[in-house]
Specification:
The complex is a heterodimer of chains A (about 210) and B (about 190). By secondary structure, chain A is mostly beta strands. Chain A is built from 1 helix and 13 strands, in the order αβββββββββββββ. In chain B, the strands form 4 sheets. A 5-stranded antiparallel sheet of chain B has the order 2-7-12-9-10, with helices on one face. In chain B, strands 11-8-13 form a 3-stranded antiparallel sheet. Classes of the chains: A mainly beta (about 210), B alpha+beta (about 190).
Chain lengths: ~210, ~190
C-alpha cells in the first residue's frame, strides 16, 4: 500500500512539472530591418565649345555632344548622360579651344569630385598609326581658382598639347546639382598634320563623407 | 582571459582596416577629346613654250616630280623642271607655273632661289614676270629678286592657286655651249606660325 502511495505521489509531481511547461502564455514581435542603399553616380548635363581662339580664318571647328545612357536629370531639367565627347576638326598648331562641361550628380549620395592624377588622363595619336603620349601634371589641382595644367608629350619629348582644367576638383555635388568644368586646350607646333589625337579624361566622384 | 581579450581586439582592428579599404563608394565619368588636325600641302604644275625665230632648233621639255594632289582636275607635283636645249640669243622662253594649296590650313608663301651658273648665262638673260593672284588681279615686274620680294608673306588659302608667268629672253652676250640652271623654291608655312 505504501508503494502505491509513492507511485501516486510521483505521478502527481510529474504532472505538476508538465503543468509548469504549459503554464506561461507568450507573444512575440518582430523588428524588421530593411536597408535600401543609395547610389553614387556622376555624369554630364552639358557639353559646349565656348570659343576657338587664335583661329581668325574660322577654318577649325568643333562638335560637342553627350554620349551614353541617360542616368538622371539635373535640377534644370536637363538629362544627365554617362559621357561627353568633343571633336575638334581641322585643328592646327597655335589655336586654343575653350570648352565647358557640366558635371552632374545623378546618384542619391552627395559626391566630391576627386583629385586628379596623371592616371586620370590618357592621350594617344590614333591615326595614321597608334602612338601613346606621355602625360605630366605641371601644376595646380583643378579646384576652383587653381587650374590644373597638364602637358602631353610625343615620343620625341615635345609638348603636343597643353590642357587646363578649372573648377571641378573638390566640389561637392548633391543629387541633380552640377558644376561647370572649364577645359582649355592649346595645340602646340609638334602636333602632326592629318592626324587624329584622342584624349580621355576620367573624373571620379566619391561619396562625400569618405572623400 | 587577458590573452583572449587581446585576440579579440586584434580581430576588431583587422576588420576595421578591411572596412576602410571597401568603404568609399564612387563612380567615374569620362570626357573624351578627339582632335583631328588639319593639313597643308603645296603643289606645283607647269607649262612652257618657246617663241621667236626658233626654226625648230631649240628644244623645250617640261617634267614633273612626285605627284601630290589633284585640284580642279589638274595634277599637282612636288617639282616642275623646265629644260631648254640648244638655246641661242633672241629666243624667248615662256613659262606658266601654277602653285596651289591642297591642304586645309592657309599658308604664308616664301620664295628662295639657288643658281648653278658658273659661266654667267643668266647674266645675259632678262626675266620678266607676271603674277596672277587667286582673285584675278595681277602684278608684273622683272628679275627674280623682285618676284621673291613680291610674294614673300603672301597668304594662300586652301583651294586657291597663284600663277607665276615667266618670260625669259636670252641676250646676245650669252656664252655658247654652256649649261646653267636655277631652282626657285616656294615654301608654304602655316599662316599663324
Amino acid at each position: 500500500m505504501k508503494r502505491i502511495g509513492l507511485i501516486c505521489l510521483a505521478m502527481v509531481l510529474a504532472l505538476g512539472t508538465l503543468g509548469v511547461g504549459y503554464a506561461h502564455w507568450s507573444d512575440d514581435a518582430d523588428i524588421i530591418q530593411t536597408v535600401q542603399t543609395g547610389t553614387v553616380s556622376i555624369g554630364f548635363s552639358k557639353a559646349a565649345v565656348v570659343d576657338i581662339l587664335g583661329d581668325p580664318k574660322d577654318i577649325a571647328w568643333a562638335d560637342a555632344f553627350l554620349t551614353g545612357e541617360q542616368i538622371g536629370v539635373d535640377i534644370m531639367g536637363r538629362p544627365i548622360h554617362e559621357g561627353v565627347t568633343f571633336v575638334i576638326h581641322n585643328a592646327y598648331p597655335g589655336i586654343q579651344v575653350a570648352e565647358v562641361v557640366d558635371i552632374a550628380s545623378a546618384g542619391t549620395i552627395p559626391v566630391h569630385i576627386a583629385g586628379m592624377t596623371e592616371a586620370s588622363f590618357h592621350m594617344a595619336k590614333t591615326d595614321p598609326y597608334l602612338q601613346e603620349l606621355e602625360t605630366q601634371i605641371v601644376g595646380g589641382t583643378g579646384a576652383p581658382g587653381d587650374p590644373l595644367e597638364v602637358h602631353f608629350y610625343d615620343a620625341d619629348g615635345n609638348v603636343v598639347m597643353i590642357l587646363w582644367l578649372v573648377n571641378a576638383v573638390g566640389v561637392q555635388l548633391h543629387q541633380g546639382y552640377f558644376t561647370s568644368l572649364e577645359i582649355h586646350k592649346f595645340f602646340q607646333q609638334p602636333m602632326q598634320m592629318s592626324a587624329t589625337y584622342e584624349l580621355t579624361i576620367t573624373l571620379v566622384g566619391i561619396q562625400y563623407n569618405q572623400a | 582571459m587577458k590573452r583572449i581579450g587581446l585576440l579579440a581586439l586584434a580581430l576588431v582592428l583587422a576588420l576595421g582596416t578591411l572596412g576602410v579599404g571597401y568603404a568609399s563608394w564612387w563612380d567615374d565619368a569620362e570626357i573624351v577629346q578627339v582632335v583631328e588636325t588639319g593639313s597643308l600641302e603645296l603643289g606645283v604644275r607647269g607649262e612652257a613654250w618657246l617663241s621667236g625665230d626658233i626654226k625648230d632648233q631649240a628644244t623645250i621639255d617640261v617634267s614633273h616630280g612626285a605627284f601630290k594632289f589633284v585640284k580642279d582636275n589638274f595634277d599637282y607635283f612636288q617639282t616642275v623642271t623646265v629644260t631648254v636645249g640648244n638655246l641661242y640669243p633672241s629666243i624667248w622662253v615662256m613659262e606658266n607655273f601654277y602653285i596651289a594649296l591642297g591642304g586645309t590650313v592657309p599658308v604664308h608663301l616664301s620664295l628662295g632661289v639657288t643658281y648653278n651658273d658658273p659661266d654667267g648665262v643668266y647674266a645675259c638673260m632678262t626675266i620678266a614676270w607676271t603674277v596672277t593672284y587667286p582673285d584675278g588681279s595681277q602684278a608684273s615686274g622683272s628679275g627674280i629678286p623682285a618676284l621673291i620680294a613680291l610674294l614673300d608673306g603672301y597668304q594662300l588659302h586652301p583651294c586657291e592657286t597663284i600663277t607665276i608667268y615667266l618670260d625669259k629672253h636670252l641676250e646676245q652676250c650669252a656664252p655658247q655651249g654652256k649649261t646653267a640652271s636655277f631652282t626657285l623654291t616656294v615654301t608654304g608655312t602655316q599662316y599663324n606660325y
